[in-house]
Structures are given as C-alpha cells and as structure tokens.
C-alpha cells in the first residue's frame, strides 16, 4: 500500500524536517529555492512526479526566522508557495509546522499608526486553506485565534528543562527577564521539580528607541540560575538579565530560549555578561540548537 503521509522539509527547517519525518517513519522531500534577479522568491518542491503528492496528507515544516539564506519575508513567501504547490498537486490534507513564526511579537499596538501584524500573518496563513497549524512557544498565543483551522502552540519547556537537568544543575532558581515571562517561567520551573523558586527582573522597553532598562535585586547567592525567554533576538534582554543575576550572586547561569535568533553581537553580549551556556531549540537552526523539537512535534502529529 502506498504511504499516505509525506513531509516537505522547507529550506529553513531541513534538519528538523528530516528528523520529524524519521520520527514519523515517513518520506521527507526537500525543496529548491532561489531569488530571481528582481528579488522575487522562487520555490520548487523537489519531485519529478506530481502524483507523489496527490491524495496524500502533506506535512510542511518551515521556520520563518531570518537566516543566512533568507530573511523572514522570504521564509513566509516560501511557506505560502509550498502550501499552494501541494494544494495544486492534490494534497488531501495540509499540515503546517512553523516552529518559529515571524512577526509574532507585533501582536499589540504600542504607538499610534502601527499594524497589528502578527494577527495579519495568521489571517494570511488561514486564508491559504490549510487543515492544521503547529508552532512552538509563540510569543502571544492569543493571535492564534485568528485561525479557523486547528492551531496548536507546542510547549518546549519540558525538553529544555530536561537538557539543563542532565547538565547537573542544582539549587535552581528560574528567573524571568520581565514580568510578562513569569507565567511561562513558572511552567518551566515545574519541570525541574516541586517548589523551584521563580523570580523576575523589572524590564522596561522604550517603544521608540527599543532601548531596555532592567532592575531588581534577587537573592541568587550560590544558585544555578536559569533565565528563560521565548526569543533571544539582539541579546539585549538576556545580557542585561545575566549581568543582574551575576551581581545577585548566581553560581551557574543558563541562558535559555526556544527561539535563539542570536542577531548581530548577541552571542558575545550574552557570554560576556556572564552566561555559562546558551541553549536553544532547533526551531532555529544554528550552533545553539541543542534541544531538538522533532520528537514532541512528531508526537503531536501522530
Ligand atoms: C519580548 O517580550 C521577548 O519575550 C524577548 O524578551 C525579546 O524579544 C528579546 O529581544 P532582545 O534579545 O532583542 O532583547
């Protein structure tokens, strides 16, 4: 009998795509991408026989973060092209896994005249007529309500906590880099055991300049500190929190993010501030993708 499911590993999620396919024991297909001279994106699914897709349940895996071979707009265009292409070829069910979703942080209006673009991204994905959508630790899960299809936000906290536990961390305190991350940090702490303390620094961001200020004097003496955020972008938030944690007497400091984008000098800033290790997932394919999402995503898709 012909296999009913097939997976397309998008250009931004080649490793994670193949690993998910292996977990599901299904075939993974790659893509071919380029930019036309005028800057337009081109994507082709690497198959010679379109009947390979017809009648199949197709899983498309594509993170949409900026990387060396495409910015987030290209990544989104490639995602839309993959959806359109498999639909045209007769896929019976389309499941999108976008572990990192670009624009997710633009979920609120901070200044007059802005667009609430995170919601628009979801409306666009929804309008493509997909059946199921999965992402991981999205910045503000509420935006997913824009999707009329099944939309799931997968929590990667347990596997990140397991990684840190395996490193031998002890006397752990989980520190949220701002008040908004406290609820998430509480869930994170629960994966290290019972009664693991959770504390937070007070962060303010200037909505015009993006500059951050942070304050707080926590009792972290001789504690192994885990600072967990959903995203590390420029590293400003994480580095500032690490400096404060160092001042507060922390022993080891683990800088953890589901989506470690590590833009520009972020790695330098975070390590110089005093982190012992930077830990991310393979939602973003880079040198700190130490924790793979393959199994938990595959478990959702089974
Ligand atoms: C903001 O609310 C997010 O959760 C992150 O704290 C933020 O995106 C990190 O950005 P950066 O690394 O540029 O400070």
For this entry, give a set of tags.
302 residues, alpha/beta, Rossmann fold, 2 domains, six-stranded parallel beta sheet, 8 helices, globular, binds ribose-5-phosphate
Unreliable residue stretches: none
**Large-scale geometry:** globular
CATH architecture field of the largest domain: 3-Layer(aba) Sandwich
The helix/strand series, from N terminus to C terminus, equals EHEEEEHEHEEHEHEEEEHEHEEH
Helix content: 25-40%
Strand runs, count: 16
- The CATH first-level class of the largest domain comes to Alpha Beta
Question: Distance between the terminal alpha carbons, to the nearest Å?
Answer: 19 Å
CATH topology of the largest domain: Rossmann fold
Strand portion, in percent?
25-35%
- Indicate the mean pLDDT: 95
Question: Can you summarize this structure?
Answer:
With 302 residues, the protein is an alpha/beta fold. It is 28% helix and 26% strand.
Secondary-structure map:
Elements: E1 5-9, H1 14-24, E2 27-29, E3 31-35, E4 41-45, E5 57-61, H2 72-88, E6 93-97, H3 117-127, E7 132-136, E8 150-154, H4 157-166, E9 172-176, H5 182-190, E10 198-200, E11 202-205, E12 212-215, E13 224-232, H6 236-247, E14 253-260, H7 266-273, E15 277-281, E16 289-291, H8 294-301
The protein binds ribose-5-phosphate.
Task: Describe this structure as you would to a colleague.
- It is a single chain.
- Helix 1 (14-24) crosses helix 8 and helix 6 (236-247) runs parallel beside helix 7 (266-273).
- The longest helix has 17 residues, at 72-88.
- It is globular, with a radius of gyration of 20 Å.
- It is α/β, with parallel strands linked by helices and 302 residues long.
- Helices cover 28% and strands 26% of the residues.
- The protein has eight helices and 16 strands.
- A six-stranded parallel β-sheet has the order 2-1-5-6-7-8, sandwiched between helices. A six-stranded parallel β-sheet has the order 10-9-13-14-15-16, sandwiched between helices.
- It folds into two domains: 5-155 and 292-301, Rossmann fold; 157-282, Rossmann fold (3-Layer(aba) Sandwich).
- The structure holds ribose-5-phosphate.
- Ribose-5-phosphate (R5P) binds at residues 105, 177, 180, 229-238.
